[in-house]
Amino acid sequence: MVGRFVYRLVIYVTLFAFALQGCRGQNFVADEELMPYVHEYMSFLKDNKIGMQFQTKFVVSFNPFLDAFRFAGYAEGMDKDKEVNVYVSKSVWNRSNEGQKRWLIFHELSHDIFNLRHGTCELMKPQMDIKDNMETFEIAKKELAEVLKNK
Ligand SMILES: [Zn+2]
Question: Is 27 within 8 Å of 56 (Cβ atoms)?
């Protein structure tokens, strides 16, 4: 009788833990300014029915160290399949147009989440062009969707 009670209790506690996990979702952290662009990437994946692995860590943040190395962004979590850790240079961000900002976030998150390498498509070219804008981004985004769908 007691054994049966303990058995049930274990099941309830397990179910509760799973429910809690579901509510909490991924440990999603992004700088406030970067957050809308990260959400745009998530919507892009959803709209194109591109699934991704559950990430135990999901961080997208500004990192002042990048300025010293002249990097626009860095995907520290690349090849770590359960971790997203993207750094963005604040100074590059501040002088980027809306198309370039999207370009940067989409580029780094595609490195980090899907391990996409440079040269895979236009969006994964090693460096953004000074002339990149919303128009060139939208074209590159469509190509990226095809690459990820066929991955
Ligand atoms: Zn890159």
Answer: yes
